[in-house]
Write a structure and sequence with these properties.
By secondary structure, the chain is α/β, with parallel strands linked by helices. It is built from 16 helices and 17 strands. It folds into three domains: 53 residues, 3-methyladenine DNA Glycosylase II, Chain A, domain 3 (Orthogonal Bundle), CATH 1.10.15; 250 residues, Dihydropteroate synthase-like (TIM Barrel); 119 residues, 3-Layer(aba) Sandwich (Rossmann fold). The N and C termini lie far apart (70 Å).
Length: 446
């Protein structure tokens, strides 16, 4: 059972050192009890206390690592019911399903097409992570062959879907280096699947007929020493699935129910008869509260909106998205190319760089750290002041790349022109357009 804030406080060193980020040990204890802090933030807690506090300091929903390599992902680890309370941390992982009876050539074609679904958005590479191999009844050799081909010829990690322990073992042997998710332990095979998961140190999905039936199964598996579990309440009707996921999240967070405190897996592919409807259901699961969503296929027009929804849902609303301060080359600039400067708010960068790219004019784009604020907001907050911009221009290294001494500042920051000029004597300070859409015309007219 989780400890209360006062019980936790009694085990802390009571130094009020503030090194954990809060003023007092009591405040830290309260944050720890509510899942808003981690025990590792306290540098002075004793080993004995750490052991006693391990349960209280663990996230109410256990984080589980899926796979290896570039598409490795973590699911679970959430601490709040609603996004406005704090943030959601680990994005829903997207999977597409194939049968173990698929032809080798057809699978190769699918993997090639699916691997191409990678989208650059605000500096991030958006892509799906998993392929689920479903046992089609062709035996363990066919199952293992498909798992092996996916593991060895693609970046994708795997879900192995069978309730036959012999088939599962063959699949594990074929792709164990990818750390696949085993799906699924049921009432009939829980002992065999629990043993396989423990022997191979693999995450294990647990499938029941209802939410109420899950705790007995997870308690049994935890008693076997398994911790990396993923839950499937068995619901395949849209409303029931939504209700189950909400109830499980609430039980784990509000009632501290450790038996339900695990990531979830959902199957839109088993809830709809076409990919478009699957996409709508998967969108619901991304919002509330699916950790893994398994589709029947990936198609660009269906996958891209899900990836964007996922990005929006799992982006910290209290922290602006930023790009790294520095010099960015657009359209292969040379020593005579113009220089533009703007802030490091990701949306500003990608809009401005996109307009410059569209102009076909080779340009140096300087990105000044403004703590993720847009131009006008950064200027008003003193994060894009003229003297700071001038100092940045001198230190960033652009002077070694160009022969001229002219810099173009954003139109909304025209007021800083004088201060920039004072910091950069001899430089011409040109005020550019206010709107990014006018940048191509402005650059071409120069």
């Amino acid at each position: 059972m989780a400890l209360t804030g006062i019980q936790i406080f009694k085990l802390l060193p009571k130094t009020n050192c503030k090194e954990c980020g809060v003023p007092t040990c009591l405040a830290f204890a309260m944050n720890l009890a509510s899942g808003k802090a981690e025990l590792d933030s306290c540098p002075y807690v004793s080993d004995e206390a750490r052991e006693k506090l391990s349960e209280a300091s663990a996230p109410p929903i256990r984080p589980v690592v899926l796979g290896n390599g570039v598409r490795k992902a973590t699911v679970g680890g959430e601490t709040v019911q609603y996004r406005h309370e704090k943030t959601f941390f680990n994005p829903t992982v997207l999977a597409a399903r194939v049968g173990s009876d698929i032809d080798k050539g057809a699978l190769e074609t699918k993997l090639k097409a699916w691997n191409a679904f990678q989208y650059e958005r605000v500096g991030l590479n958006l892509r799906p992570e998993l392929v689920a191999v479903k046992d089609s009844g062709g035996g363990k050799d066919a199952f293992a062959a498909v798992a092996k081909q996916i593991a060895e010829t693609s970046e994708f990690n795997l879900i192995l879907m069978t309730e036959d322990a012999d088939v599962m073992k063959a699949g594990i042997d074929a792709c164990n280096f990818k750390r696949p998710l085993m799906y699924a332990a049921t009432g009939d095979n829980i002992d065999d699947f629990g043993t396989l998961a423990k022997e191979n140190d693999l995450p294990l999905a647990v499938k029941a007929d209802s939410v109420e039936a899950l705790p007995a199964m997870t308690d049994k598996l935890m008693g076997m020493g398994l911790k990396d579990l993923v839950l499937d309440p068995g619901s395949r009707e849209v409303k029931q699935s939504n209700d189950d996921l909400i109830a499980m999240r609430r039980s784990a967070l509000k009632d501290s129910n450790r038996a339900i405190g695990f990531p979830t897996i959902t199957f839109p592919c088993e809830m709809a008869s076409n990919l478009d409807m699957e996409t709508l259901i998967a969108g619901m699961h991304i919002a509330k509260y699916g950790s893994i969503a398994v589709m029947s296929d990936f198609a660009g027009e269906n996958l891209f909106p899900l990836l964007l929804e996922r990005l929006n849902i799992f982006t910290d609303p209290q922290r602006p998205m930023t790009v790294t301060e520095g010099i960015y080359e657009v359209n292969n600039p040379d020593e005579n190319s113009p220089i533009l400067v703007t802030t490091n708010f990701a949306l500003t960068y990608f809009i401005v760089s996109g307009e410059i790219e569209g102009s076909k004019v080779p340009t140096w784009l300087l990105i000044k750290d403004s703590e993720g604020l847009s131009v006008l907001t950064a200027w008003a907050a003193g994060k894009f002041a003229g003297d700071d911009v001038g100092t940045f221009v001198k230190k960033c290294g652009i002077m070694d790349k160009v022969k001229h001494q002219e810099i173009i500042i954003p139109g909304y920051a025209a007021a800083i022109a004088g201060d920039v000029e004072e910091e950069l004597p001899g430089w011409a300070i040109t005020v550019g357009p206010r709107e990014a859409a006018h940048i191509p015309g402005f650059l071409r007219a120069r």
